[in-house]
Protein backbone atom coordinates (compact mmCIF):
# COMPACT_ATOMS: atom_id res chain seq x y z
CA UNK A 1 0.00 0.00 0.00
CA UNK A 2 1.38 3.43 -1.01
CA UNK A 3 0.16 5.93 1.58
CA UNK A 4 1.30 8.99 -0.38
CA UNK A 5 -1.22 10.99 -2.38
CA UNK A 6 -0.72 11.49 -6.09
CA UNK A 7 -0.39 14.93 -7.66
CA UNK A 8 -3.91 14.55 -9.05
CA UNK A 9 -5.35 13.75 -5.62
CA UNK A 10 -3.56 16.71 -4.06
CA UNK A 11 -4.96 18.94 -6.80
CA UNK A 12 -8.51 17.71 -6.16
CA UNK A 13 -8.13 18.55 -2.49
CA UNK A 14 -6.53 21.96 -3.09
CA UNK A 15 -9.07 23.07 -5.69
CA UNK A 16 -12.03 21.99 -3.59
CA UNK A 17 -10.71 23.70 -0.50
CA UNK A 18 -10.29 26.97 -2.38
CA UNK A 19 -13.81 26.83 -3.81
CA UNK A 20 -15.48 25.80 -0.56
CA UNK A 21 -13.58 28.38 1.50
CA UNK A 22 -14.64 31.12 -0.91
CA UNK A 23 -18.28 30.15 -1.40
CA UNK A 24 -19.38 28.10 1.61
CA UNK A 25 -18.77 29.95 4.84
CA UNK A 26 -20.94 29.46 7.94
CA UNK A 27 -23.43 32.14 6.85
CA UNK A 28 -23.65 30.60 3.37
CA UNK A 29 -24.41 27.20 4.88
CA UNK A 30 -27.18 28.58 7.09
CA UNK A 31 -28.71 30.43 4.14
CA UNK A 32 -28.54 27.41 1.82
CA UNK A 33 -30.24 24.95 4.17
CA UNK A 34 -33.25 27.25 4.46
CA UNK A 35 -33.93 27.27 0.72
CA UNK A 36 -36.58 24.92 -0.71
CA UNK A 37 -33.93 22.55 -2.08
CA UNK A 38 -31.76 22.65 1.00
CA UNK A 39 -28.58 23.51 -0.91
CA UNK A 40 -27.15 26.21 -3.15
CA UNK A 41 -27.80 25.29 -6.83
CA UNK A 42 -25.07 27.69 -8.00
CA UNK A 43 -22.46 25.99 -5.81
CA UNK A 44 -23.69 22.58 -6.95
CA UNK A 45 -23.30 23.67 -10.58
CA UNK A 46 -19.77 24.85 -9.84
CA UNK A 47 -18.88 21.54 -8.20
CA UNK A 48 -20.26 19.67 -11.20
CA UNK A 49 -19.11 21.83 -14.11
CA UNK A 50 -15.74 23.04 -12.86
CA UNK A 51 -14.63 20.02 -10.85
CA UNK A 52 -16.74 17.13 -12.15
CA UNK A 53 -17.44 16.03 -8.57
CA UNK A 54 -20.72 14.09 -9.20
CA UNK A 55 -18.96 11.98 -11.84
CA UNK A 56 -15.64 11.64 -10.04
CA UNK A 57 -16.05 7.90 -9.39
CA UNK A 58 -18.11 7.08 -12.50
CA UNK A 59 -16.53 5.44 -15.58
CA UNK A 60 -15.47 7.67 -18.44
CA UNK A 61 -17.82 5.72 -20.73
CA UNK A 62 -20.74 7.37 -18.89
CA UNK A 63 -19.31 10.86 -18.74
CA UNK A 64 -17.45 10.39 -15.47
CA UNK A 65 -13.85 11.06 -14.53
CA UNK A 66 -12.99 7.42 -13.89
CA UNK A 67 -11.43 7.86 -10.44
CA UNK A 68 -11.88 5.61 -7.41
CA UNK A 69 -13.50 5.86 -4.00
CA UNK A 70 -10.23 7.33 -2.69
CA UNK A 71 -10.60 10.50 -4.76
CA UNK A 72 -14.29 10.76 -3.88
CA UNK A 73 -13.46 10.41 -0.19
CA UNK A 74 -10.80 13.14 -0.41
CA UNK A 75 -13.31 15.43 -2.09
CA UNK A 76 -15.93 14.76 0.56
CA UNK A 77 -13.39 15.37 3.31
CA UNK A 78 -13.05 18.93 2.04
CA UNK A 79 -16.83 19.35 1.78
CA UNK A 80 -17.14 18.00 5.31
CA UNK A 81 -14.87 20.72 6.67
CA UNK A 82 -17.49 23.32 5.79
CA UNK A 83 -20.53 21.02 6.26
CA UNK A 84 -21.37 21.89 2.66
CA UNK A 85 -25.04 21.05 1.96
CA UNK A 86 -25.28 19.34 -1.43
CA UNK A 87 -26.97 16.35 -3.09
CA UNK A 88 -23.58 14.68 -3.64
CA UNK A 89 -24.04 11.94 -1.03
CA UNK A 90 -27.52 10.99 -2.19
CA UNK A 91 -26.71 11.22 -5.89
CA UNK A 92 -23.12 10.13 -6.49
CA UNK A 93 -22.52 7.93 -3.44
CA UNK A 94 -25.83 6.13 -2.87
CA UNK A 95 -27.89 6.16 -6.08
CA UNK A 96 -25.39 6.25 -8.97
CA UNK A 97 -23.39 3.15 -7.90
CA UNK A 98 -26.61 1.12 -7.75
CA UNK A 99 -27.60 2.21 -11.25
CA UNK A 100 -24.10 1.35 -12.44
CA UNK A 101 -24.06 -2.05 -10.74
CA UNK A 102 -27.59 -3.26 -11.49
CA UNK A 103 -28.97 -1.16 -14.31
CA UNK A 104 -29.44 -2.31 -17.89
CA UNK A 105 -27.22 -0.63 -20.44
CA UNK A 106 -30.09 1.57 -21.60
CA UNK A 107 -30.70 2.74 -18.04
CA UNK A 108 -27.03 3.50 -17.45
CA UNK A 109 -26.75 5.43 -20.69
CA UNK A 110 -29.91 7.40 -19.95
CA UNK A 111 -29.08 8.47 -16.38
CA UNK A 112 -25.38 8.24 -15.53
CA UNK A 113 -24.09 10.88 -18.00
CA UNK A 114 -26.68 13.35 -16.69
CA UNK A 115 -25.69 12.55 -13.11
CA UNK A 116 -22.01 13.00 -13.94
CA UNK A 117 -22.74 16.40 -15.50
CA UNK A 118 -24.73 17.54 -12.48
CA UNK A 119 -27.92 17.88 -14.54
CA UNK A 120 -29.75 15.10 -12.68
CA UNK A 121 -29.85 14.50 -8.94
CA UNK A 122 -30.95 11.16 -7.53
CA UNK A 123 -31.84 9.64 -4.16
CA UNK A 124 -32.13 6.20 -2.61
CA UNK A 125 -35.53 5.62 -0.99
CA UNK A 126 -35.61 2.87 1.62
CA UNK A 127 -38.79 1.87 3.49
CA UNK A 128 -39.17 3.15 7.02
CA UNK A 129 -35.98 4.25 8.74
CA UNK A 130 -33.82 1.28 7.70
CA UNK A 131 -31.17 2.97 5.56
CA UNK A 132 -28.26 1.61 7.62
CA UNK A 133 -29.73 -1.90 7.51
CA UNK A 134 -30.40 -1.71 3.78
CA UNK A 135 -26.77 -0.78 3.16
CA UNK A 136 -25.56 -3.69 5.28
CA UNK A 137 -23.83 -1.45 7.81
CA UNK A 138 -25.52 -2.55 11.03
CA UNK A 139 -27.04 -5.90 10.09
CA UNK A 140 -27.73 -8.46 7.40
CA UNK A 141 -29.62 -6.78 4.55
CA UNK A 142 -30.90 -10.02 3.03
CA UNK A 143 -33.94 -10.03 5.33
CA UNK A 144 -37.40 -8.50 5.11
CA UNK A 145 -36.51 -4.85 5.82
CA UNK A 146 -38.17 -3.76 2.55
CA UNK A 147 -41.59 -5.13 3.49
CA UNK A 148 -41.44 -8.88 3.78
CA UNK A 149 -44.90 -9.50 2.34
CA UNK A 150 -46.55 -7.72 5.27
CA UNK A 151 -48.38 -4.43 5.41
CA UNK A 152 -45.83 -1.66 5.62
CA UNK A 153 -42.65 -1.00 3.75
CA UNK A 154 -42.92 -0.55 0.00
CA UNK A 155 -44.68 -3.26 -1.96
CA UNK A 156 -44.17 -3.88 -5.68
CA UNK A 157 -46.49 -5.79 -7.98
CA UNK A 158 -46.31 -6.56 -11.68
CA UNK A 159 -49.37 -5.46 -13.59
CA UNK A 160 -49.71 -5.97 -17.32
CA UNK A 161 -46.00 -5.77 -18.01
CA UNK A 162 -45.45 -2.76 -15.74
CA UNK A 163 -44.59 -2.41 -12.08
CA UNK A 164 -46.60 -0.53 -9.46
CA UNK A 165 -45.31 0.60 -6.06
CA UNK A 166 -47.28 1.24 -2.92
CA UNK A 167 -45.83 2.29 0.41
CA UNK A 168 -43.77 4.91 2.18
CA UNK A 169 -40.12 5.71 2.78
CA UNK A 170 -38.79 7.96 5.53
CA UNK A 171 -35.47 9.79 5.90
CA UNK A 172 -34.79 9.88 2.16
CA UNK A 173 -31.72 12.07 1.72
CA UNK A 174 -32.57 14.90 -0.70
CA UNK A 175 -35.68 12.96 -1.65
CA UNK A 176 -37.81 16.10 -1.89
CA UNK A 177 -35.74 17.59 -4.74
CA UNK A 178 -34.18 14.62 -6.55
CA UNK A 179 -35.06 14.21 -10.19
CA UNK A 180 -34.81 10.42 -9.96
CA UNK A 181 -35.57 8.05 -7.09
CA UNK A 182 -34.08 4.58 -6.68
CA UNK A 183 -36.72 2.84 -4.58
CA UNK A 184 -36.16 -0.41 -2.69
CA UNK A 185 -39.38 -2.46 -2.63
CA UNK A 186 -40.55 -5.92 -1.68
CA UNK A 187 -41.88 -8.16 -4.42
CA UNK A 188 -43.04 -11.74 -4.84
CA UNK A 189 -45.20 -12.09 -1.73
CA UNK A 190 -44.32 -15.01 0.52
CA UNK A 191 -43.67 -17.50 -2.29
CA UNK A 192 -40.83 -15.58 -3.99
CA UNK A 193 -40.02 -12.97 -1.40
CA UNK A 194 -37.22 -10.67 -2.56
CA UNK A 195 -36.12 -7.06 -2.61
CA UNK A 196 -35.90 -5.26 -5.94
CA UNK A 197 -34.88 -1.75 -6.93
CA UNK A 198 -37.02 0.52 -9.08
CA UNK A 199 -36.60 3.86 -10.80
CA UNK A 200 -39.26 6.51 -10.23
CA UNK A 201 -38.98 9.82 -12.04
CA UNK A 202 -39.83 13.22 -10.68
CA UNK A 203 -43.49 14.10 -11.13
CA UNK A 204 -44.73 10.49 -11.24
CA UNK A 205 -48.48 10.22 -10.70
CA UNK A 206 -49.33 9.07 -7.18
CA UNK A 207 -46.04 10.14 -5.58
CA UNK A 208 -45.97 12.74 -2.80
CA UNK A 209 -42.73 14.09 -1.35
CA UNK A 210 -42.48 16.16 1.80
CA UNK A 211 -39.33 17.67 3.23
CA UNK A 212 -38.97 16.79 6.90
CA UNK A 213 -37.49 18.68 9.79
CA UNK A 214 -34.23 16.97 10.72
CA UNK A 215 -31.69 17.31 13.50
CA UNK A 216 -28.95 18.09 10.98
CA UNK A 217 -30.23 20.76 8.61
CA UNK A 218 -27.22 20.31 6.32
CA UNK A 219 -28.58 16.88 5.32
CA UNK A 220 -32.02 17.49 3.87
CA UNK A 221 -34.43 14.58 4.34
CA UNK A 222 -37.86 13.82 2.96
CA UNK A 223 -40.80 11.48 3.33
CA UNK A 224 -41.76 9.81 0.06
CA UNK A 225 -45.28 8.39 -0.26
CA UNK A 226 -46.05 6.07 -3.17
CA UNK A 227 -49.66 5.36 -4.02
CA UNK A 228 -49.88 2.95 -6.94
CA UNK A 229 -46.95 4.65 -8.66
CA UNK A 230 -45.73 3.33 -11.98
CA UNK A 231 -42.06 2.37 -11.74
CA UNK A 232 -39.27 0.97 -13.89
CA UNK A 233 -37.42 -2.11 -12.66
CA UNK A 234 -33.70 -1.42 -12.29
CA UNK A 235 -31.94 -4.13 -14.26
CA UNK A 236 -33.55 -7.57 -14.08
CA UNK A 237 -35.67 -9.34 -11.51
CA UNK A 238 -32.80 -11.69 -10.70
CA UNK A 239 -30.26 -8.99 -9.82
CA UNK A 240 -28.21 -9.41 -6.65
CA UNK A 241 -29.74 -6.45 -4.83
CA UNK A 242 -28.44 -7.14 -1.27
CA UNK A 243 -24.88 -7.52 -2.57
CA UNK A 244 -25.07 -4.31 -4.60
CA UNK A 245 -26.52 -2.42 -1.63
CA UNK A 246 -23.78 -3.75 0.67
CA UNK A 247 -21.06 -2.73 -1.79
CA UNK A 248 -22.58 0.74 -2.11
CA UNK A 249 -22.91 0.87 1.68
CA UNK A 250 -19.20 0.22 2.19
CA UNK A 251 -18.24 3.03 -0.18
CA UNK A 252 -20.84 5.31 1.41
CA UNK A 253 -19.45 4.56 4.87
CA UNK A 254 -15.94 5.30 3.61
CA UNK A 255 -17.01 8.62 2.15
CA UNK A 256 -18.96 9.50 5.30
CA UNK A 257 -15.93 8.64 7.42
CA UNK A 258 -13.75 11.01 5.39
CA UNK A 259 -16.45 13.67 5.59
CA UNK A 260 -16.61 13.26 9.38
CA UNK A 261 -12.83 13.57 9.59
CA UNK A 262 -12.94 16.81 7.61
CA UNK A 263 -15.64 18.20 9.88
CA UNK A 264 -13.81 17.11 13.05
CA UNK A 265 -10.55 18.62 11.81
CA UNK A 266 -12.22 21.95 11.08
CA UNK A 267 -14.02 21.98 14.44
CA UNK A 268 -10.68 21.37 16.15
CA UNK A 269 -9.00 24.13 14.12
CA UNK A 270 -11.70 26.63 15.07
CA UNK A 271 -11.40 25.68 18.73
CA UNK A 272 -7.60 26.04 18.73
CA UNK A 273 -7.92 29.45 17.08
CA UNK A 274 -10.41 30.54 19.73
CA UNK A 275 -8.48 29.38 22.81
CA UNK A 276 -5.37 31.14 21.52
CA UNK A 277 -7.05 34.54 21.55
CA UNK A 278 -9.63 34.15 24.35
CA UNK A 279 -8.17 35.46 27.58
CA UNK A 280 -9.10 34.56 31.14
CA UNK A 281 -7.26 35.64 34.29
CA UNK A 282 -4.96 37.74 32.15
CA UNK A 283 -3.76 34.96 29.82
CA UNK A 284 -5.01 32.99 26.82
CA UNK A 285 -7.07 30.00 27.93
CA UNK A 286 -5.14 27.88 25.46
CA UNK A 287 -2.09 28.24 27.68
CA UNK A 288 -3.71 26.31 30.51
CA UNK A 289 -2.46 22.74 30.76
CA UNK A 290 -5.94 21.25 31.15
CA UNK A 291 -7.08 22.84 27.88
CA UNK A 292 -3.92 21.66 26.10
CA UNK A 293 -4.50 18.10 27.25
CA UNK A 294 -8.11 18.08 26.10
CA UNK A 295 -7.25 19.38 22.65
CA UNK A 296 -4.28 17.03 22.33
CA UNK A 297 -6.60 14.07 22.94
CA UNK A 298 -8.98 15.36 20.25
CA UNK A 299 -6.07 15.77 17.83
CA UNK A 300 -4.93 12.17 18.35
CA UNK A 301 -8.48 10.89 17.86
CA UNK A 302 -8.95 12.89 14.65
CA UNK A 303 -5.66 11.67 13.20
CA UNK A 304 -6.51 8.07 14.02
CA UNK A 305 -9.90 8.49 12.34
CA UNK A 306 -8.21 10.02 9.30
CA UNK A 307 -5.90 7.02 8.97
CA UNK A 308 -8.88 4.66 9.21
CA UNK A 309 -10.80 6.61 6.56
CA UNK A 310 -7.85 6.68 4.17
CA UNK A 311 -7.29 2.96 4.61
CA UNK A 312 -10.95 2.23 3.95
CA UNK A 313 -10.80 4.37 0.80
CA UNK A 314 -7.72 2.53 -0.42
CA UNK A 315 -9.35 -0.84 0.31
CA UNK A 316 -12.51 0.15 -1.58
CA UNK A 317 -10.48 1.28 -4.57
CA UNK A 318 -8.35 -1.87 -4.52
CA UNK A 319 -11.42 -4.07 -4.33
CA UNK A 320 -13.08 -2.25 -7.25
CA UNK A 321 -9.91 -2.74 -9.30
CA UNK A 322 -9.75 -6.41 -8.39
CA UNK A 323 -6.45 -5.95 -6.55
CA UNK A 324 -5.33 -5.92 -2.98
CA UNK A 325 -6.01 -9.55 -2.06
CA UNK A 326 -7.07 -10.08 1.52
CA UNK A 327 -6.10 -6.50 2.38
CA UNK A 328 -8.95 -5.09 0.29
CA UNK A 329 -11.66 -5.95 2.80
CA UNK A 330 -14.68 -3.80 3.48
CA UNK A 331 -13.39 -1.41 6.11
CA UNK A 332 -15.90 1.40 5.61
CA UNK A 333 -18.11 0.64 8.62
CA UNK A 334 -15.20 0.58 11.08
CA UNK A 335 -13.79 3.78 9.60
CA UNK A 336 -17.20 5.43 9.89
CA UNK A 337 -17.53 4.40 13.54
CA UNK A 338 -14.15 5.95 14.30
CA UNK A 339 -14.94 9.06 12.27
CA UNK A 340 -18.26 9.61 14.03
CA UNK A 341 -16.62 9.22 17.44
CA UNK A 342 -13.92 11.73 16.49
CA UNK A 343 -16.45 14.24 15.18
CA UNK A 344 -18.66 13.95 18.24
CA UNK A 345 -15.66 14.47 20.54
CA UNK A 346 -14.28 17.40 18.52
CA UNK A 347 -17.71 19.05 18.32
CA UNK A 348 -18.38 18.54 22.03
CA UNK A 349 -15.05 20.10 22.96
CA UNK A 350 -15.71 22.96 20.56
CA UNK A 351 -19.01 23.74 22.26
CA UNK A 352 -17.48 23.48 25.72
CA UNK A 353 -14.27 25.43 25.10
CA UNK A 354 -16.06 28.23 23.27
CA UNK A 355 -17.86 28.86 26.54
CA UNK A 356 -21.14 30.77 26.43
CA UNK A 357 -20.92 31.58 22.72
CA UNK A 358 -20.54 27.90 21.83
CA UNK A 359 -24.12 27.24 22.91
CA UNK A 360 -25.68 29.99 20.79
CA UNK A 361 -27.64 29.50 17.59
CA UNK A 362 -25.51 32.09 15.79
CA UNK A 363 -22.26 30.19 16.28
CA UNK A 364 -21.51 27.26 13.98
CA UNK A 365 -20.22 24.90 16.71
CA UNK A 366 -23.67 23.38 17.12
CA UNK A 367 -23.78 22.49 13.42
CA UNK A 368 -20.81 20.15 13.80
CA UNK A 369 -22.35 18.49 16.83
CA UNK A 370 -25.62 18.00 14.95
CA UNK A 371 -23.78 16.51 11.97
CA UNK A 372 -22.22 13.87 14.24
CA UNK A 373 -25.54 13.10 15.95
CA UNK A 374 -27.50 13.12 12.69
CA UNK A 375 -25.13 10.75 10.92
CA UNK A 376 -25.27 8.35 13.85
CA UNK A 377 -29.06 8.32 13.59
CA UNK A 378 -28.93 7.67 9.85
CA UNK A 379 -25.98 5.31 9.49
CA UNK A 380 -25.08 4.05 12.97
CA UNK A 381 -24.78 4.16 15.87
CA UNK A 382 -21.04 3.56 16.18
CA UNK A 383 -21.32 0.53 18.46
CA UNK A 384 -23.62 -1.22 15.97
CA UNK A 385 -21.25 -0.44 13.11
CA UNK A 386 -18.46 -2.11 15.07
CA UNK A 387 -20.65 -5.05 16.08
CA UNK A 388 -21.61 -5.73 12.46
CA UNK A 389 -17.98 -5.53 11.35
CA UNK A 390 -17.03 -8.00 14.07
CA UNK A 391 -19.85 -10.31 13.02
CA UNK A 392 -18.76 -10.24 9.36
CA UNK A 393 -15.17 -10.95 10.37
CA UNK A 394 -16.25 -13.92 12.51
CA UNK A 395 -14.56 -12.37 15.51
CA UNK A 396 -16.88 -14.01 18.02
CA UNK A 397 -17.57 -17.23 16.11
CA UNK A 398 -15.69 -19.32 18.68
CA UNK A 399 -17.70 -17.84 21.55
CA UNK A 400 -20.95 -18.54 19.73
CA UNK A 401 -19.96 -22.19 19.28
CA UNK A 402 -19.02 -22.58 22.94
CA UNK A 403 -22.31 -20.99 24.06
CA UNK A 404 -24.26 -23.34 21.80
CA UNK A 405 -22.51 -26.33 23.37
From TrEMBL:
Its cofactor is FAD. GO terms for molecular function: oxidoreductase activity. Residues 6-119 form the Acyl-CoA dehydrogenase/oxidase N-terminal domain. It comes from Streptomyces huasconensis. Pfam families: Acyl-CoA_dh_1 (PF00441), Acyl-CoA_dh_N (PF02771). Its EC number is 1.-.-.-. InterPro entries: Acyl-CoA_Oxase/DH_mid-dom_sf, AcylCo_DH-like_C, AcylCo_DH/oxidase_C, AcylCoA_DH/ox_N, AcylCoA_DH/ox_N_sf, AcylCoA_DH/oxidase_NM_dom_sf. Keywords: FAD, Flavoprotein, Oxidoreductase. It comes from the Bacteria. Belongs to the acyl-CoA dehydrogenase family. The keyword Oxidoreductase applies. This is Acyl-CoA dehydrogenase family protein.
Amino acid sequence: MDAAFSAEQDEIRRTLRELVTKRCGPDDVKAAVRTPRGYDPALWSALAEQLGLPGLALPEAYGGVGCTAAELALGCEELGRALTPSPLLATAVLAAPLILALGAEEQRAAHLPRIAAGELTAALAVPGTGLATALGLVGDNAGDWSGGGRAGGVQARAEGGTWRLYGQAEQVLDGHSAGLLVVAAHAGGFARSRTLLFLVREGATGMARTRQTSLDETRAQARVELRDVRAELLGGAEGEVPGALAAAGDVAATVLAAEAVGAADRALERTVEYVRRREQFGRAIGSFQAVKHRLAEVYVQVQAARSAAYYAAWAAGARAAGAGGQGAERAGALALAQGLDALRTAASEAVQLHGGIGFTWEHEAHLYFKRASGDELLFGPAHRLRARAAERAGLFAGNAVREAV
